[in-house]
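Propose amino acids for all 505 sites.
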């Protein structure tokens, strides 16, 4: 069937949406599987943490150099390679028989994700002109967002009916479809005059981000004053400062730091990071609340996240349309303010609150996050020259992931401190008290084993108190972001922003 040039671009966008669907799916599916993996692989907390964190480490630390590689050698080629890596890693994880191989597979999944995300966004920046780019970006963002509730829904079903490896195997048919679609529908694009490879900058960025994200991940468990954590975080600061110094002086830098002189680019990145902070904070505390306090299994927890995703999808649509008409600043400001309202309402949760209360603030927070996220990312894409789209979008995604990792670490420490301080373990044997202090799940297990309903109520109340503080912290940061965005982000519209000629198919 013959297609117009415009129609061909939208077909290519469908291929890109397929490519990112599994990444959104992977955000939440591991939360469902960890208890099963603990038993099946005979591993403890350390092994489970590495299964989760190996993915985050690779994803966050490799996007900057991979974005530059994509600009140089071709975005479609790197995207196809990333999909192959993701598929192979999924197969390895599905058939692994010990925790070491699962960790290796999860690290490889992170590498694949780091190849997929910046190239997908860069392809959108190249394919679509300013009038269409916001809509295109919103479709891809909604594709990723759809994976968040699908993770626990599909993961819970698979774990109830099949073996644990099926949660990884389910990625493969989606990736095969994405490979075929990208190969056929997406045109190749690259920098027509590639710069000399910045090997030193690439190495410094990888080392610095690895150390930073590892330190942020380990800090809640080891403590922020632990020598290894301090060494990692301080070392990361030194290396990343060295990276910035190098990029400012080398003739052909890996990333163009001059982009940050553009207020639209800087505030777009800042707001995308703030929105991600709010989303990560919400997803960090809510699933445990739904599972342990309200007593839902993994499958039903996924279903109860649908109001959040419904609000998010609606917000993405509204934010995109408003940004196309009046510019990025207003929808981002309103979106961040709505996020603050939703999270603030969530912070009024008490032990007697039911799912109706949760669903209400899920919708409001999701609407705000969606309204702010796509315009924030579009503001970044609007100022990127097409030849540097890969490295430019990699900056945004790296800031989101690194900021999210640090945010979850800080929020996790805050939640843990409040929970430990408020849960009442008076009269418990030392081992039982330790288990109750370690986690809400541990406290509820002790309460059930020893027949102590007062301990269960105390643990649930303590967790809700900690969750409320986390939510009000995220609300305050979102509100501050709304005020600063309104005051300092430029008023430029998507149409008036620096434009480029899209690739017509």
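Proposal:
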């Amino acid at each position: 069937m013959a297609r117009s040039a415009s129609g061909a671009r939208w077909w290519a966008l469908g291929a890109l949406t397929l490519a990112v669907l599994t990444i959104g799916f992977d955000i939440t599916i591991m939360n469902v599987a960890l208890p099963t993996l603990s038993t099946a692989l005979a591993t403890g907390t350390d092994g489970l943490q590495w299964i989760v964190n190996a993915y985050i480490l690779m994803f966050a630390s490799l996007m900057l150099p991979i974005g530059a590689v994509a600009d140089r050698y071709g975005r479609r080629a790197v995207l196809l390679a990333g999909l192959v890596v993701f598929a192979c890693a999924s197969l390895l994880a599905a058939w692994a028989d010990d925790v070491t191989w699962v960790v290796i597979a999860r690290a490889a999944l992170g590498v694949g994700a780091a190849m997929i995300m910046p190239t997908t966004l860069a392809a959108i920046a190249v394919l679509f002109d300013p009038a269409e780019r916001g809509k295109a970006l919103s479709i891809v963002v909604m594709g990723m967002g759809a994976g968040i509730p699908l993770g626990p829904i599909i993961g819970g079903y698979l774990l109830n009916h099949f073996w644990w490896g099926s949660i990884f195997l389910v990625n493969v048919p989606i990736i095969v479809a994405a490979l075929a679609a990208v190969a056929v529908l997406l045109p190749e694009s690259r920098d027509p005059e590639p710069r000399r490879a910045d090997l030193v900058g690439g190495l410094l960025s990888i080392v610095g981000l690895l150390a930073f994200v590892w330190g942020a991940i380990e800090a809640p468990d080891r403590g922020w004053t632990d020598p290894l954590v301090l060494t990692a975080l301080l070392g990361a600061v030194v290396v990343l400062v060295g990276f910035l110094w190098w990029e400012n002086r080398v003739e052909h830098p890996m990333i163009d730091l001059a982009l940050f002189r553009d207020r639209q680019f800087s505030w777009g990145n800042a707001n995308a990071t703030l929105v991600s902070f709010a989303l990560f904070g919400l997803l960090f505390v809510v699933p445990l609340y739904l599972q342990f306090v309200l007593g839902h299994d993994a499958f039903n927890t996924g279903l109860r996240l649908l109001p959040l995703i419904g609000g998010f999808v609606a917000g993405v649509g509204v934010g995109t349309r408003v940004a196309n008409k009046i510019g990025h600043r207003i929808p981002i400001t309103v979106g961040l303010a709505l996020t603050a309202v939703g999270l603030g309402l969530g912070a009024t949760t008490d032990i007697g609150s039911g799912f109706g209360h949760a669903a209400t603030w899920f919708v409001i927070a999701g609407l705000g996050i969606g309204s702010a996220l796509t315009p924030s990312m579009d503001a970044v894409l609007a100022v990127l020259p097409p030849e540097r789209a890969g490295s430019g979008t990699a900056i945004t995604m790296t800031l989101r992931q690194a900021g999210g990792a640090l945010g979850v670490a800080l929020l996790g420490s805050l939640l843990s401190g409040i929970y430990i301080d408020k849960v009442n373990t008076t009269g418990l044997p030392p081992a039982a008290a330790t288990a109750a202090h370690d986690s809400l799940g541990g406290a509820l297990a002790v309460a059930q084993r020893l027949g102590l309903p007062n301990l269960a109520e105390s643990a649930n109340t303590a967790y809700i108190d900690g969750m409320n503080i986390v939510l009000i912290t995220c609300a305050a940061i979102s509100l501050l972001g709304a005020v600063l965005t309104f005051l300092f982000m430029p008023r430029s519209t998507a149409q008036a922003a620096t434009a480029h000629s899209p690739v017509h198919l």
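Residues 208 and 237 are 7 Å apart (CA to CA). The mean pLDDT is 85.
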